[in-house]
Amino acid sequence: MNRDLLLTALAPLIWGTTYLLTTTFVSELPALLLGVMRILPAGLLLWLLSRRLPPPGWWGRVAVLAVLRQALFFVLLYGAALHLPGGVAATVGASSAMLVVLLAWPVLGQIPTRLNLALAGAGLAGVALISLSGGEALSAAGLMFALGFALVNALGTVLFGRWGPPPGARPLDQVAWELTLGGLMLLPFALPSASALTHLPPSGWAALTVMTLIGTALAAVLWQRGLNRLPVQQVGLLAPSVHLPPCCWTWCFSATG
To answer: What dihedral angle (degrees, nearest 10) is formed by the CA atoms of 42, 43, 44, 47?
Structure first.
């Protein structure tokens, strides 16, 4: 298997722990606060390693990507995690792969091939068959959150494919800028609920630490590295593995390999 593809696929595998950690350890925290606690510390840490700023003329694009791929994505993601069973949210979120394939047509001029459409559709159907097994009562708000994070993730991925990386920027730099800006954008909205952190037990803080350092900082750098090196549609097909149970992960490797 392509080494770049393998390293990129590690990011969704890491992200697959989000629902478990969220529902088990930090389910009492609101989605806005969870989003800030996950992305802002990760962004600041990576920026300390990067020590670079976006080049002139790129601040606007970086800000747009920060809103789509970080701020909105994580808030909507946690909204889905807190309102839906993990399998259902993963099924709806898997539509991101199809959205990337479709959006790449008008935005990038990349006409979807039959194989791309077949893989995206088959992946969504397969995830649905594996995930939807219990007939749980579904939250309308949760479904909207899940559709939202699929859409903003796909749009951010395709826009990056159109703009490409800033000149001379490394994946570390790009992720540091987006996470920091996205976290700062969310911070004013999350501050009113910050008192909830005082009631968080040590296990909750440990879960937040894991999600921040590994699930955000490390995984985001791996994902960005893949976006810099691989075709957008190929990376987009890895999206269904976000937040899936381990039994679904092998499909993602075989479908994109």
So the answer is: 120
